[in-house]
Every structure is written in structure tokens, then in C-alpha cells.
């Protein structure tokens, strides 16, 4: 990688972390304008950074689908936002399953048990969204498994993404708590970065 491209990548990544700090702080202090503005920049910045790292096209597609999901979830189109993130997870699965370092059935069993427990706990409060949430959670869990099979770095990212969306599901089921929003966005941003860098670093 040439020095100019490397420097550009570092500047974009610094912008991503800056936007993450602003996003988490804005959510924590309920500053609506900053929340929306910073959230809209997160995945586009990470996508731009992934391009400087020669990320595979499907990984870039996952980040763009995530960006669309972020925007849609800020509107009334909740199911459309969920569909966009489902597309992102389908792309992640294609990337991670194409080159798994080691398939661990213990990881599969542990995440399967976690998925079942989450659905059992959350379903009573989800009402009509019970089925789409369960299906989406299954895709999310599959990403967590496949990312762990790929390498430990991306595996941590998959776990954090799962935690982030589980926190959203808690709110949807009526189990909100103080600080949940900031925790949701911090685990989401770090998780997406680790999923991305776990692929680009291992491929290099």
C-alpha cells in the first residue's frame, strides 16, 4: 500500500472514531440533531476506510447495507431497516464462510443456545414483531458464529454486533434501562469495525 493511500485510510478511520464518540455522547445526552447527523456518517466512513484496505466487494456491500439500515431505522420503516441489516448479514456470512479458519461446533452450540434463550425471554413483549425479530436474530447469530470461525478479531466484532442488537430488542420488548442507547451504539460501531478489520487484516 502506498504512503498516500495509507495516510488517507488513517484520516478516514480517525473520522470514523470521531463520529463514534460524537454519536455515543449525543445519544447519552439526548441531543437529537447530533445523534442523527453522526449516525448517518458512521457506516459511510467505515465503508470508505474499507476501500483503502482493499476490502472484498461483499464486505463493502455489507457496510453500505448497514448504512441504509441505520437511516431507515430513524424513520417509521422499521421492517425495511431490519431487511437492510438482514442483507448486510447475508453479505457478512458469504465473506466469512468463504474462508473459515476453523469450524468449532462448540461455538455453534453456544450461540444456538444463546439465540434460543434470547427469543424465549424477549418474545412475550415483542407482539406482532416476534417472528421478524426471531428470523433476524437467527441471521445475526449466524454472523457471530461465522465471524468467530473466520478469526478471533472478527469473532469479537460479531459478538459485539449481537450484543448491540440484543439491546435494541430489549427496548422493543419493553425492557429499557438508563444508558442502553449509548451502550447500543458503542458496541455497534466497535463491532462493525472489528468485523471489517478482521477481514482486511487477515487478508493482507
Automatic annotation (TrEMBL):
InterPro entries: TMEM86B-like (IPR012506). It comes from the Bacteria. It comes from Kribbella rubisoli. The chain crosses the membrane at residues 12-35, 80-99, 105-126. This is Membrane protein YhhN. One of its GO terms (cellular component) is membrane. GO terms for molecular function: hydrolase activity. Keywords: Membrane, Transmembrane, Transmembrane helix. It is a multi-pass membrane protein. Belongs to the TMEM86 family. It is found in: Membrane. The keyword Transmembrane helix applies. Its main location: membrane.
Amino acid at each position: 500500500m502506498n504512503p498516500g493511500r495509507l495516510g488517507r485510510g488513517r484520516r478516514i478511520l480517525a473520522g470514523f472514531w470521531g463520529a463514534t464518540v460524537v454519536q455515543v455522547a449525543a445519544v447519552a445526552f439526548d441531543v437529537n440533531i447530533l445523534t442523527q447527523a453522526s449516525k448517518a456518517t458512521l457506516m459511510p466512513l467505515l465503508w470508505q476506510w474499507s476501500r483503502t484496505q482493499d476490502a472484498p466487494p461483499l464486505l463493502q456491500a455489507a457496510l453500505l447495507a448497514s448504512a441504509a439500515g441505520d437511516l431507515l431505522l430513524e424513520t417509521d420503516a422499521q421492517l425495511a431497516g431490519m431487511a437492510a441489516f438482514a442483507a448486510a448479514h447475508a453479505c457478512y456470512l458469504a465473506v466469512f464462510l468463504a474462508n473459515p479458519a476453523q469450524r468449532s461446533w462448540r461455538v455453534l452450540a453456544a450461540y444456538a443456545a444463546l439465540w434460543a434463550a434470547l427469543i424465549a425471554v424477549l418474545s412475550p413483549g415483542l407482539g406482532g414483531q416476534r417472528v421478524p425479530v426471531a428470523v433476524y436474530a437467527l441471521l445475526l447469530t449466524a454472523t457471530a458464529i461465522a465471524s468467530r470461525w473466520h478469526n478471533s478479531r472478527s469473532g469479537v466484532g460479531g459478538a459485539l454486533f449481537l450484543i448491540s442488537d440484543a439491546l435494541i430488542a430489549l427496548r422493543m420488548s419493553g425492557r429499557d434501562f438508563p444508558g442502553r442507547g449509548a451502550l447500543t451504539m458503542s458496541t455497534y460501531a466497535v463491532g462493525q469495525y472489528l468485523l471489517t478489520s478482521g477481514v482486511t487484516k487477515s487478508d493482507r
